From TrEMBL, chains A, B:
It holds the Pfam family TetR_N. This is Unannotated protein. The keyword DNA-binding applies. GO terms for molecular function: DNA-binding transcription factor activity; transcription cis-regulatory region binding. InterPro entries: DNA-bd_HTH_TetR-type_CS (IPR023772), Homeodomain-like_sf (IPR009057), HTH-type_TetR-like_transc_reg (IPR050109), HTH_TetR (IPR001647), Tet_transcr_reg_TetR-rel_C_sf (IPR036271). Keywords: DNA-binding. Residues 20-80 form the HTH tetR-type domain. Residues 184-229 are annotated as: Disordered. The keyword Glycosyltransferase does not apply.
Length: 229, 229
DNA sequence: CCACCATGTGAACCGCGATTCACCATGAGC
DNA sequence: GCTCATGGTGAATCGCGGTTCACATGGTGG
């Protein structure tokens, strides 16, 4: 960035860029910085640079850094929820709306997307953030949970799952997936546990069991069939 | 300096034993501050006040704040592990070493202790901490996991659980318990879900299911003990 | 009795990163 | 053309909290 005094027009063509879009550029820049360096690396300076604006410009559009990130997190979390909801719909599509599958599908999508964008997932799940932003996180965790609670209740009503405290199971599921992901997702994860695919399928197994669903196919304990370790 | 509520921090014996080195007082003070205000509230100033020493004294005994907390976390986490191990031993004690119970017992203790000291649990589980301290946390998470992995493998070998990826199940269990606790444990939790006892028993159910253990009672488990809190 | 070391003191220092502010462009309306 | 209003700039400011340092103090050995 050349620091010519008074040369405001040179960094980015001003007219080409809609005035309203600086705000959007900041939002996009913030998201992109978080995706790359996590919330910890998302200083005001870094965001400004990424957006191609000056430090202070941020404050023309947002009351504070935290406010900016509240919007970013809302946006990103919203996408996650949408994707999870879409996955649930998808299940009914192929003609056989297995109620257990409707519980597992969004979890699978959640995990899959997290693995695809680990730094972002880390920021969304566990990274230290502003108190204000943290509330958004909590808010969305609740949303995830509520989504699952509904699906679990449906499955129980349909007789596909044993009666249970759906709220607790939902929380446990979110936690199980979250924890199993936090390892691989956090900085410098060892690939000790194997590929992402094996992680995903293993996770699906644990989740299925946690809901109390009978093992695939026969409703009997798989006794003595091959063991893997 | 008057930032701390005077009464609370005084729990630490101030001048009982001079010889009981200042170092120990600092460690105790640090732990006590974390227990009360979390790591976030554990500034050097707060700790010094709680220990009844000056700001700089801390640096006569520890290279940095982080080093102090490495020791504190090691200590606290060690207690947790000890308690969990003891719980496992306890199971064998009454003559009936149910392998599934040996998996659930430490989880139960973990949850129970967390609920008893929520702020501390929060700090241990999820609160943002120094990188150095974070490594200790990771180290102990792994310890928890390894403990469970061993017990799970035993149970599988004994035929009490279906074959499974023990490492993944262990991570999921820790995560499930953690998440289910983080809600109640984090600032301003609503008691919406009921009492701690119901939480604990529900948690036990989910965990049992997640391991793939057959539902309570029906099968061949030695006795029909009606309830066990 | 004095030098000395260990330990304690707390005000000053410092780096970091969010926030502010005095000052410019530019476009719209008069 | 002149004047606001809007949006942009980036160096200065500020608050926070960890760390340092010049200065006690008190017990010990020479």
């Amino acid at each position: 960035m050349s620091a010519l005094p008074g040369g405001a027009a040179e960094a980015v063509p001003l007219r080409a860029v809609d005035v309203a879009s600086t705000r959007d550029r900041l939002l996009a820049a913030a998201r992109s910085v978080v995706e790359e360096h996590g919330y910890g690396g998302a200083s005001v300076a870094a965001i400004s640079v990424a957006a191609g604006v000056a430090n202070g410009t941020l404050y023309r559009h947002f009351g504070s850094k935290a406010e900016l990130f509240v919007e970013v997190f809302r946006d990103v979390c919203g996408r996650e929820v949408d994707a999870m909801r879409a996955a649930v719909e998808q299940v009914g599509q192929d003609g056989r709306p297995d109620p257990v599958e409707r519980v597992l599908a969004p979890l699978d999508v959640f995990a899959r997307r997290a693995l695809q964008n680990r730094t972002l997932a880390w920021a969304l799940l566990a990274e230290p953030v502003d108190a204000l932003v943290d509330e958004v996180r909590l808010e969305y965790r609740r949303t995830y949970r509520d989504l699952l609670v509904g699906l679990l209740a449906d499955a129980v009503d349909a007789g596909a799952l044993p009666p249970q405290d759906a709220g607790l199971t939902a929380a446990a599921l979110v936690g199980a997936v979250g924890e199993a992901l936090v390892g691989p997702v956090s900085p410098r994860a060892e690939p000790a546990s194997g590929t992402d695919d094996s992680l995903l399928s293993g996770l699906r197994d644990v989740c299925r069991r946690a809901t109390g669903a009978p093992p695939r196919g026969p409703d009997r304990l798989p006794q003595g069939d091959g063991d893997r370790r």
